[in-house]
Amino acid sequence: MKKYTITGMSCAACSARVEKAVSSVEGVTSCSVSLLTNSMGVEGSASESAIIKAVTAAGYGAVPANKAAASPKNDDNLSNESELSNIKHRLAASLVFLLILMYISMGHSMLGLPLPQFMADNNLMNGLAQLLLAAIVMVINQKFFINGTKGLIHRSPNMDTLVAMGSMAAFVYSTWSLFAMTDAQVKGDIVRTAFYSHELYFESAAMILTLITVGKLLETRSKGKTTDALKSLIKLSPKTANVIRDGVETEITADEVVKGDIFIVRPGQSIPVDGIVLEGESAVNESAITGESIPVDKKAGSTVTSATINSSGFLKCEATRVGTDTTISQIIKLVSDAAATKAPIAKTADKVSGIFVPAVIIIAVITLIIWLIVGKSAGFALARAISVLVISCPCALGLATPVAIMVGSGTGARNGILFKNAVSLEQTGKVSIVALDKTGTITAGEPVVTDIIPAHGYTENELLSIALALEIHSEHPLAKAVINHCNGKNLTFEEVTAFRSVSGNGLTAEHNGIKISGGNYSFISSVSIVPDDMKKAAEMLSSAGKTPLLFSKGEKSIGLIAVADVIREDSIDAIKQMKKMGIRTIMLTGDNEITAKAIGEQAGVDEIIAGVLPDEKEAAVRSLKKQGVTAMVGDGINDAPALTSADMGIAVGAGTDVAIDAADVVLMKSSLIDVPAAIRLSRATLRNIKQNLFWAFCYNIIGIPLAAGAYIKLFGWELNPMFGAAAMGLSSFCVVTNALRLNMFNPYDASRDKKQSAHVKTEVNSDSSTEKTIKIKGMMCEHCEARVKKALEELNAVKSAEVSHKSGTAVAELCSDISDTELKQAVEDAGYKVTKIV
């Protein structure tokens, strides 16, 4: 995705206009514009110059994000400090002249406050002073008029257009009234002079601009807080690194570190890049990345992550990931990209925003005409029309979704839950089925010793010493489990000779001239006598999903050690929480049925599917998707097909890069408890978006008729344009403030969990399968294929879809009738263009 910084946008109508203009450029497959961060993400083969030209033609400015970031004037595109400072200065200057204007226009006539004699007794001088002061306020706030006029010229009126039209209408009418009053005064017409002296709305023209600026100040300040999580991540990025080059320790910037560099990290320093420890031991605080506050012990061979803090010891490391490849850079990119994308729920607001401002202008004109027809004065009719213009707020519609997405994704990032885009943040909360990989997801992924049963006449330590002497020569994962267990007990052992590995069975060696052996039951029973009680213990442990390793000395059994990949401490609790939330849990594993059943029952999953290969996992997930919105949670390469096929792919952070790339959500702590936390956060964010949209729509549905005077006859309600302007400014502030509440949301609090109605997909009759071939433009890689495949297979009528970016086609196997329009809509919603369906 190419990212651009967009300038000149003021409301949702602006972002909709830019999005429409860029989407029409040849080669653009998808475009998403964020009003919140003034950014645009574009996918496709279109050139930078063509995209920038389209934005410029629409009346706005565009700069590639990397160039904007390098510019001294834009050293922090996520920060709105300069904009906030500009608004403060404008507001302060506006208030000074507005207060003087209000004193002259209302203070004297309504409150009897004193004025200079030449102004108190002369309506003309009073009116001229008001005109001058209002004009000064309008010049101070010329931004509204410049941007609003540009919008009209480019046939894309925006919020600034509404404000400019409202203020200018009040100013022009007041100026005309001032000339009419002057003419009446010259002719000695006292009645007309008195009438026109009350038709001056200069204070309204100035007040509208000032109150809108107040609203903009509140909105901008609040918008700045929505990016706090992202800005804090950027601040965490280390600035310098101590590297050893040519045998000399040198301090350089973190950006200058290259892969393979040896760097030094002392206590209290941040780790500059991802790497592997070569020397030293320490505890590293990884809370910035994982959200976990307990420091993690590091030693030679351990991996270290950029932006984490070395708490105690001295570490010498080798750089493995540098620059934009570091973990912290990838996290920043994910959170930033999530803010630059749009959630499906935003589409309704976007459609409304595209026609909102022109519709408001038409309503204002109709309002003016109707009140004039019914016999009201021009001043009254104009006041109603101005109120319509200034109360309407497209900003609230445009901000309703992106602010919640930004705050929600930021809250997730602080807790080690990374949503790759806005779609994943919205859709995760709709999950009704969770398929879980076993090894490395439900379990720790590393076998450990669980049971030690020495034979009669042997102690536990004697059994472990002989086992250690044998297993220390093996590279097998089960041997590693025994070695790690023994290392914790500081056991001694004597070296063995004639070591030999019997493939698939076990190990043999000589110990003080006596043959010792270790391995499975069939191997040990062939070289020694295994007592019945030991045989029963081995069978019992096997049925519990553990692997019994039997050991013998000579022809005598000396005991067994059971090894198993144990369930993570929080997996059982995580599965309980998901059940409480109304989510069906299924374990998918390639392990045998006995082991899978033992682990599944202990974990408490609803269903177990064992002995499945990677392609069979993908097929199982495809089958589950027909029953409800399905999430796949995995960590290995073998999980990648299933992660891609699922409605939502969730990868644990300790997993492979392939799994993480294939997933929609990444859990940095590799903890299953983060799965219900992610679902909880998604539900809270979606709930917040719905609240924001409800407020934005209701505000305009109620406010516009009120401003137009529709309630005057019914309730006597009449809205002054100044109050309309205040309401417009506050509406956006309310939306942003509501979204900021997500900062206080605790995704790990299960106390308020409720079963939500499952997003179930209706089962369809597979006997009526037919095929349709869809010609698609814009697919360029396997990632594109996966997106189109997912979009089509989410349709109830589509049984499966085979997609090829090389041929530019998708073959959809149907199991019920579906219109070409629905198929086309699904593909185009995924960001691609359908040219033909046959």
Summarize the structure.
With 838 residues, the chain is α+β, with helices and mostly antiparallel strands. Helix content is 50%, strand content 19%.
Folded structure, characterized:
- This protein is an alpha+beta fold and 838 residues long.
- 50% of the residues lie in helices and 19% in strands.
- It contains 32 helices and 30 strands.
- It has a 7-stranded mixed sheet, sandwiched between helices.
- A hairpin with a 2-residue loop joins strand 5 and strand 6.
- Helix 14 runs antiparallel to helix 16 and helix 16 (394-414) runs parallel beside helix 30.
- It is elongated, with a radius of gyration of 35 Å.
- Residues 70-79 and 760-768 have low confidence and may be disordered.
> Describe the biggest sheet?
7 strands, mixed
How many strand units? Answer: 30
Q: Any low-confidence stretches, pLDDT <50, length ≥5?
A: 70-79, 760-768
Instruction: Please report the distance between the alpha carbons of the first and last residues.
Output: 31 Å
Q: Kindly state the percentage of residues in helix.
A: 40-55%
- Cα radius of gyration in angstroms: 35 Å
- Output mean pLDDT: 81
Count up the helices. 32
Percent range for β-strand residues:
15-25%
Q: What structural class do helix, strand and pairing data support?
A: alpha+beta
Give the CA-based shape. elongated
- The main sheet orders its strands as 14-26-25-24-15-22-23
